[in-house]
Amino acid sequence: VSRLAEILLSLRFFIYQYGLVYHLDISQHSKNFLVYVLSWIVIVAVFLLVKAVNMGRQLFSANYQLGFRFFKAFLFVAVIAIIITLSVICELSLMDIFVCCLAFMPTAWGLIQIAQAVRPKIEHTGVWHFTRALAREFDYGMGIVLFGPIAILAWLPIIKAFHARILFNEAFKRHLQIQPILAVKKKKHRP
Fold first, then answer.
1. Could you tell me the pTM of the whole model?
2. In this structure, what are the phi and psi dihedrals at residue 91, rounded to the nearest 5 degrees?
3. Cβ–Cβ contacts within 10 Å for residue 131, how many?
4. What is the DSSP code string of 124-189?
5. Do residues 17 and 104 make contact, with C-beta atoms less than 8 angstroms apart?
6. 112-130 per-position pLDDT tens digit
7. Burial class (CB in 10 A: 0-12, 13-18, 19+), 174
8. Lowest CB count within 10 Å: 3, 21, 49, 139, which one?
């Protein structure tokens, strides 16, 4: 019963995707169900890309590191070429790419949740290995989404100056009471 409830709760991510896909400029605000089906074709293509990278990692990474890097570079250039082609032919905008990320990342999370719910049934199949690879790539993607803006802000000189100004501000230092924290730490270390 709990596994069925987990699967039903994971369906909310697909409804979220359904709502976002129809707001893309590339769909030309069409309400046809084919737009949603095409979004699943894109998701399958992304999954195949993840599977290709995972297989390349297994086949090439130990003995043929340079070949694996060329393989990943080829896949990267192919994806960029497809995005540029779609932007020229089908009027794919940068906002569409952002909305696709907002739609497809929760969908991937929903699929991972469903795979975890049915893990006893698929654990000894290739689907579970693929799920693990997808979860690893999902973690990489979420790391980029979460820490990318922080890294960009850390490189900006205005943010560095603002941070230094706050850190060395006398009013800030007066309210920062480090002595009680250090005293507690010393008490813990005493025998």
1. 0.67
2. 60, 45
3. 20
4. TSHHHHHHHHHHHHHHHHHHHHHHHHHHHHHH-HHHHHHHHHHHT-HHHHHH---HHHHHHHHHHH
5. yes
6. 999 999 998 888 888 888 8
7. exposed
8. 139
Backbone dihedral angles phi then psi of residue 32, each to the nearest 5 degrees = -70, 145
Q: How far is residue 167's CA from residue 11's CA, in Å, rounded to a whole number?
A: 46
CA–CA separation, 168 and 98 (whole Å): 38
Q: What are phi and psi of 26, to 5 degrees?
A: -65, -25
Q: Which run of H or of E encompasses 67?
A: helix 65-89
- 3-class state of residue 123 by DSSP: coil
Quick count: other Cβ atoms within 10 Å of Cβ 92?
19
| Residue 53 · residue 72 · CB < 8 Å | yes
The total of other beta-carbon atoms located within 10 Å of residue 133's CB is 18
Q: Which one-letter DSSP state was computed for residue 64?
A: -
SS (HEC) of 8-46: HHHHHHHHHHHHHHCCCCCCCCCCCHHHHHHHHHHHHHH
125-152 pLDDT, tens digit each: 888 888 888 888 888 888 888 898 888 8
